Amino acid sequence: MSSVQDTGPETFQQFPSNRIIVIHPGSFYVRIGRASDLLPVRQLHCIARKRRPEGKIYRDSFVPPSVPKTKELIEELEECRLQISHTLQSCMQSNGARRYATPPQQIAAFNRRSLPEAVSDGEPWPQVECDIIIGDLVLDVDPELPYNIHFPYKRGDFNIHTEVGGSISSVLNDLYTIWSSIIEYKLGIALIELVKYRCVLLIPDIYNRSHLKYLMSLLLRDLGFGDCFLVQESVGATFGAGIGSACVVDIGDQKTAISCVEDGISHKTTRLRMDYGAGDVCQALSWMFHKSAFPYKDWNENIPRDVILMRNLYHDFCHVNLDVCGPQEKTFLVDHPGDIVNKYTLQVGDECIISPLALFYTDLLKITGIKTTKIQNRQPSDPEDPFDAEFLRETGRKKEVVDLSVAEQQTETANEAQPSTNTEEDIVVDTLEGGPGDIVTLAPGQVLSLDAAILQSIDRCPNEELKRKMYSSILIIGGGVKVHGLNLWLQNRLALQIPYAYKTEQLEIVTSPKDIDPASTVWKGAAVMSCLESAIELWINQSEWNKHGLKVLRERAPFIW
């Protein structure tokens, strides 16, 4: 029988891609679309709920909130700013001339004299009559109205806290409301029809198993999709970029995640997540603008539209182009409902380069508090899935333990770095893990800079060949990477630090593969993946989930559980 007949329509029936919904939730935006769409629908990943009379006030910030500026903090920020400034002054422009910086006092003198220029009358605040508002429409809610604002994700994971709306059930309820509204009103699909649709959900590389269980139930039981499967973001990125293997660096709004992916599998030991992203860089920019007498005096980080304005200034003005030096004049509009539209002229200096370089000089990011670096750890078992790796670990031990007390003492000391040197256990479980628990934090306060984190992630690869492969293919994605020249700066920093043994012919850093917006690469990759023939065995349907629960997810998941 010829091989051509083997791949005939009898064996593989393509499920229509316009009936597969791909959901990529982020801390700031959520992207949802059909797998057949060129680009997903992007909406703010937030919800505003009308407060009950006498109800508690709770409003998540639209940017990681800045911490109180103590004398010590201001000294640290100032020291870091000067350090970056001196580094920039020691750089050359492309024509060989030395760079020069304009003193902040000179820029501040200009900005103090800069007065707003009225452009038009502006619009009143829109009339809000619903009890629940989702997505971008939340920006149309007058901050004076009695609404609580919730972002269900924070720093790349569930936003769980002790205030109103901070329980896991509240977060899942918010996710249901936001996602179902976008599917119904933006994609035009009635929720009752979802049983005929399939769903792919993107999950963080460093995940919490219990959260995945809740999300599977949300998709199959609550939203009512016919089938679904989960994909890790870094794996989605390699499919979106069309690269087989890469060290994936995802610079999001509130987190930067790094993972080495080889042939669709993210190596567990290489996963790192730092608690900083474009939102924190934005706060550093805001601090420097205000040091130079920002002409829009009423700017307030608690007003959503002011935050969006600062985010737009970050996207429009920030760059890492060493040929741009000296003061630059920029203009921007402040268009808030209920007020006249004002045009401001602002003079900027090196702060537009210094703020994105905070990813390499992380002391500047202390403006939003102490940061941490997280790694994936062994996780507690779930009663739904008793025969998991934990069970194998406990029952697969060697019988001939000579002296238990001595053995226990030895394991305690060795437990942190290498919990097991038992060859039988090596077969069934990952050995580079701590004790059962959750996501682990490496030395709190010691946050890795972007280049150091990439080097550490690659250094955690299991073999030399893989390390060499990763150094030659670094893929940078996420909304935070859209700063002109950032990739070149990173490339130069890494080139100086790569161990001599791995200096490959070319250190390649890819930022916008196939001309896709780097913020949508992950979404696109999951859409591509969902249409592959090999995806057939990944789908989990409602009845399987209801019958087997977590067990079926462990067996089918396209990542090592």
TrEMBL record:
<keyword id="KW-0227">DNA damage</keyword>
<comment type="similarity">
    <text>Belongs to the actin family. ARP8 subfamily.</text>
</comment>
<comment type="function">
    <text>Plays an important role in the functional organization of mitotic chromosomes. Exhibits low basal ATPase activity, and unable to polymerize.</text>
</comment>
<keyword id="KW-0539">Nucleus</keyword>
<protein>
    <recommendedName>
        <fullName>Actin-related protein 8</fullName>
    </recommendedName>
</protein>
<keyword id="KW-0234">DNA repair</keyword>
<keyword id="KW-0233">DNA recombination</keyword>
<dbReference type="GO" id="GO:0006310">
    <property type="term" value="P:DNA recombination"/>
</dbReference>
<dbReference type="GO" id="GO:0005524">
    <property type="term" value="F:ATP binding"/>
</dbReference>
<dbReference type="GO" id="GO:0006281">
    <property type="term" value="P:DNA repair"/>
</dbReference>
<keyword id="KW-0804">Transcription</keyword>
<keyword id="KW-0547">Nucleotide-binding</keyword>
<dbReference type="Pfam" id="PF00022">
    <property type="entry name" value="Actin"/>
</dbReference>
<dbReference type="GO" id="GO:0005634">
    <property type="term" value="C:nucleus"/>
</dbReference>
<keyword id="KW-0805">Transcription regulation</keyword>
<keyword id="KW-0067">ATP-binding</keyword>
<dbReference type="InterPro" id="IPR004000">
    <property type="entry name" value="Actin"/>
</dbReference>
<dbReference type="InterPro" id="IPR043129">
    <property type="entry name" value="ATPase_NBD"/>
</dbReference>
